[in-house]
Specification:
alpha/beta; 6-stranded mixed beta sheet; 12 helices; 10 strands; 46% helix; binds hexanoyl-coenzyme A; lyase; ClpP/crotonase-like_dom_sf; EC 4.2.1.17; Enoyl-CoA_hyd/isom_CS; Enoyl-CoA hydratase
């Protein structure tokens, strides 16, 4: 597969997707969304890839959906084209995905980062949902995921005023897992993804599914699902190997990694 708006590179068991439209600060055009989805699905289907890193440049993760592409669209066209549905498909990828975010993560850029499973932020990262200033609201899940991540008060304030949040506040608010110096961002994210990729892939997929269920189900249902999921782990060779390795005081040699 050849891409024109992203770069892909595999490092060991980590698949990297780099948004590469610097002249537009990585504004997310429809074509770019399709490329990101194609690349992510290819990694998802590859047993040789155990985790994905999605990143941009040190200046911008992504400055939003492509305003120039959207501006003249009618409501009817958006319905007919099912605009933004590519991002729903990206959220269905089962392989763990880490967003390494530096610089602007605005509008759709912030939403894309939140579609990933967790965010590692550079100290210069800036998160915001400034759509209100354009006369619209987020359309890639931002109103839902930001609210779940940082709570109603901050999500309301950000979405209603368009205020941007720096990395330190983002960490304090639970939007990002960790903040690192911008120069160390990509290596840190790849190292983190490599740890994930060293585990059993069906089990990391199971862990991701369990956590995601917490956002979809009442507690008792979620706990029931978790129980079924851990029982299913016991049907996998990697559970036998992981526990045997512990008892034999040696590193686990997972078969499915
Ligand atoms: C299209 C964009 C863009 C975007 C930047 N560019 N953001 N093009 N869509 N979202 C383009 C600029 O037009 C410019 O191109 C080039 O990238 C460099 O940007 P500058 O503005 O010159 O850079 P700077 O002065 O450093 O300002 C950076 C910035 C600003 C603060 C990030 O670019 C900005 O405010 N961008 C828009 C942020 C935003 O509103 N995002 C939300 C989009 S709506 P030219 O050709 O002029 O040099 C969204 C949700 C959609 O994402 C869902 C609702 C429908």
């Amino acid at each position: 597969e050849t891409y024109s708006l992203i770069l892909t590179e595999q490092r060991g068991r980590v698949g990297i997707i780099t948004l590469n439209r610097p002249e537009a600060l990585n504004a997310l055009s429809d074509a770019m969304g399709q490329e990101i989805l194609t690349a992510a699905k290819a990694y998802d289907a590859d047993p040789g890839v155990g985790a994905i890193v999605i990143t941009g440049s040190s200046r911008a993760f992504a400055a939003g959906a492509d305003i120039k592409e959207m501006a003249a669209k009618s409501s009817v066209e958006m319905y007919q084209l099912d605009w933004f549905s590519v991002w729903d498909a990206l959220a269905q990828v089962r392989t763990p995905m880490v967003a390494a975010v530096a610089g602007h993560a605005l509008g759709g850029g912030c939403e894309l980062a939140m579609i990933a499973d967790f965010i590692i932020a550079a100290d210069n990262a800036k998160f915001g949902q400034p759509e209100i200033k354009l006369g619209v609201i987020p359309g890639m899940g931002g109103s839902q995921r930001l609210t779940r991540a940082i709570g109603k008060a901050k999500a309301m304030e950000m979405m209603l005023t368009g205020r941007v949040m720096g990395a330190e506040e983002a960490e304090r608010s639970g939007l990002v897992a960790r903040v690192v110096p911008v120069d160390a961002l990509l290596e840190d994210a790849i190292a983190t993804a490599a740890i994930i990729a060293s585990m059993s892939k069906p089990v990391t997929m199971t862990a991701k599914a369990a956590i995601n269920a917490a956002f979809e189900t009442p507690l008792a249902e979620g706990v029931k699902l978790e129980r079924h999921l851990i029982f299913s782990c016991f049907a996998m060779e990697d559970q036998k190997e992981g526990m045997a390795a512990f008892m034999e005081k040696r590193p686990a040699e997972f078969k499915h990694r």
